[in-house]
Amino acid sequence: MDVLSDVLAAVRLTGAIFFDNTFREPWVAETPKASAVAASVMPTSQYVFFFHTVIEGSCWAELIDGPDEPLRLHAGDIVAYPMDDAHALCSTVGMRAKPDLAVYHNPIDRQLPYIVNDGSGAGTCRFICGYLGCDIRPYNPFIRSLPRVLHGRGTAAQGWLIDLVHHAVSETQGPRPGGEIVLARLAELLFVEVIRQYVDTLPAESRGWLSGLRDPQVGHALRLIHGQPLENWTLESLARAVGSSRSVFADRFAHYTSDTPMLYIARWRMQLAARRLENPAISIAQAGAEVGYESEAAFNRAFKKLVGLPPGTWRKGRLALAAVSPVLRSRPD
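^ that's the sequence the OP posted. Answer follows.
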C-alpha cells in the first residue's frame, strides 16, 4: 500500500495551471491568500493553495508577512504555499504590487491558462502559476503536515521533473482539446514530486504525518491501516503486527500523527464514508456498512461525533454543491 497515494486520491488532490507569465525586469507579481479567490478558481475544493514553477530565468519568492527568508528560484524550480499565505514573486527582494482579485476566475470563453507576456530579452523571467485543491474534511492527515513554504529544486538529478515543466509550457502555446486536463495532471505530478523531495530531506528527528511514513513502525502501521481500513484493528493487533509493545507503539504513533491509532482509523473511515455519501444512489446505511458499521444508527453517531454533522446533513451540503458544479457532479465514484 502506497499510503501517500491513497490519501491524495481520497482527499481528491486536484491541480490547475492558470497563468503563463513572462516579465522583464523590474517586475513583481503579488499573490493574495488563496482563500480570497478559492471560490472563484476551484469552487469544488474545500481547500486551495498556490504553486509557481519557473520556466526561464530566475526570480525571488517571499512571504508578504512571515519570518522566512526570500527564496531564489531558478529555471525548473517549484515553490508552493500550502498554508494560505500571501506571497510575491519579484525580480528584486521587497518589491510589492497590490494583486487584482478580478483576474482570478475560470474563463468560459477560452482555455486556461491566461497568458501574460511583457516582452523578452535580458532580465526576462517566465513562470507558470497554478492552484492545488483538496478536501480537508472530514479528515486529511496530509495537509497539516506541510510547511508554510515548499521548495522543489529542478536539479540535474530531477531531469524528468524539468521535462514535465517544459511539457506543461508546450501545452500553453496554443489551445488543444484536452489541454486543461493535461495541465491539471501535470500540476499534480509536479506537486507530488516536490513532496517526495521534501520527505527525502526531512531530518531524522522531525515530526508529522509525512515523517511518520518513513518510520519503520508507524509507516508499517499506516500501510496496514490504509491497505485494510475495514479490518477490526485494535491497538494490540497493530502493535503486534509492527513488532512493538502497545505503549511504545501508541506513543510513537501519536508522536508522528498527533492521533491515537484508534482515532486515526475512525477518522480515516469517515473520510472514506464521506466520499461514498456523495453518490446519491448509496444509502446512508450502505455508506456506513462499507466502512465497517453494522447499523445506520451507530454510523450516524460516529459520523456526527467525528465530523460535527450527521451524515444526512453532510450529504445534502455536498450534493447541493454538486448541483451547481458539473466538475464534481461528473466525477466518477
